[in-house]
Amino acid sequence: MTRYLLSVHSVAGGPPRPPMSEEEMRRSHQRLAEIEKEMESSGAWVFSGRLHEPDTATVVRESGGEVVTTDGPFAESKEHLGGFYIIEAADLDAALGWASKVTACINVPIEVRPFSAYADEPQV
Amino acid sequence: MVVVVDEAMVGRIFRAEAGRSVAALIRFFGDIDVAEDAVQEAFAIALRRWPGEGLPPNPGGWITTTARMRAIDRLRRRTRERVLLGEVAMLAPGTAGTGADDPARLVADQADDGPGEEDAVPDDRLRLIFTCCHPALSTEAQVALTLRLLGGLSTAQVAQSFLVAEPTMAQRLVRAKRKIKAARIPYRVPAGHELPARLPPVLAVVYLIYNAGLTEPPGAAEPRLCAEAIRLARVLAALMPDEPEVAGLLALLLLTESRRAARIAPDGSLVPLADQDRSRWDRDMIDEGQAIVRRCLRRDRPGPYQIQAAVNAVHADAGAFDRTDWSQIVALYDHLFAATPTPVVALNRAIAIGEVRGPAAALALVDELDLGHYYAFHAARADLLRRLGRDGEAAAAYRRAAAMAPTAAERDFLGAGGRSRRSPEPSGNGS
Predict the structure, then answer these.
(1) Structural element, H or E, at residue B333
(2) Nearest residue to B75 (alpha-carbon basis) of B32, B36, B29
(3) Contacts of B92 in chain A (CB under 8 A)
(4) Model pLDDT, residue B406
(5) Tens digits of per-residue pLDDT, B160-201?
(6) Does residue A16 form part of some domain?
(7) What is the CATH number of the domain that holds A105?
(8) In a mutagenesis test of the B interface, which of A91, A98, A118 is the best target, namely the one with the most B β-carbons within 10 Å?
(9) Residue B384 CB-density burial (10 A; 0-12 exposed, 13-18 middle, 19+ buried)
(10) Is 60 exceeded by the pLDDT of residue B315?
(11) Which range, of A56-60, B69-73, B96-100, B392-396, averages the lowest pLDDT?
(12) What residues make up the domain containing A29?
């Protein structure tokens, strides 16, 4: 099994989408909950989370022997991480399968990336 | 009869067999680099031995067996404590039962390998091409990997064929292989329900290799990408006999290739379809291609490659350009445009319509297309304008086409104002 990070990207100021009605929103949330339940019961789900807006972020970095703290996200960009899943899958096709289900539901791009692991490290 | 085994012959055999050996070894070791290195090593041994000792009874089986032995030796040498052999077993889940963790047994296994060893797993190459053409890889990476791993081309040869510097190509291959390993792109033939999504990139890569061969820079004498593409299409058609588009692709390549000798004049210039000496078309390739097209028609599950093959089959049927059944070609392009409504298909359809309803009707259709960046668009306009007697506009269109043409032969042809009454065959159909 390989562990993958599915990062859910949000694009600020992207092409406007027709706003969802309350009913559509409710259905979408329900569908996502079903997918997440399926992930869990199949043993694929490891961890997941949704993040606050990037303006709630704080960056610390080492600079000249000092740790400097700055307000705001690390990269000023239109795209930012909105949430993520960490899953276990047999291969990339299986991981892409989960990502496809999620993106079909929430309609934002998802990046699928493998965790690196050493051969002598047990990949749970 | 004494067969003289020289380096060129060993090279030819190697290119024909390398893909099968690499594919078998990847399944066995679960690692592309291990497989490639071992097959290269086996080739080096063949180059040393075969010219003196003669060919083994089954050269392909010999390469696979020798490569496998070498890989095991090397893995053993590298890791006395068998750490890596343990890793090999883990990387290749499908081989757990073959005793990949027991080198002694592997060596014993290969000792009784008969000549038919590689026939026991006929679809390794199919697995490999689906891995090479996985949609998670860029088209460039797909093409490079396919030529390198299945075609047995060296990195230098792949680079030369695509006018890319060798280090750039090497880096592209390394990156693609690293991704396959890290992201665990599977090594398997997709299930039936996945094929509609997974087969098109495979066919597109083979078609792209063929078209790259049509515009291959002169001097890249060997190996020919066109021949390699046809070889790959044959392998696919044999391994997937129930996929009509695979058969369609093979037929399309054969029928296009049948005109090779007639397409280029002795001085290297291009001969358009209208002016080709049809007695120089390769009848065997035409017969084979047309037989496949007929089988496709009976099966009646049409697709873009089959339709393009059918267009070429109609050309092959005509003893002379003016006896071409253009109304049938127009009908085929109507189908093709319905299936793949691209501007390039619309351009080819318009050119065919011009042969039925005249150049004015065709020009009206051509002028609606947004293809100003495509040399064949200007070449088609130039030809139609000339036939309408609008010589000034025709000359300007020829100049534009010549400036954009991808090969020197096409540039010369268009620069000379077409010379013929028809435009040259555009390379590729853009679909």
Answers:
(1) helix B326-339
(2) B29
(3) none
(4) 77
(5) 877 789 999 999 999 999 999 999 999 999 998 999 889 999
(6) no
(7) 3.30.70.1060
(8) A91
(9) buried
(10) yes
(11) B96-100
(12) 2-11+23-114
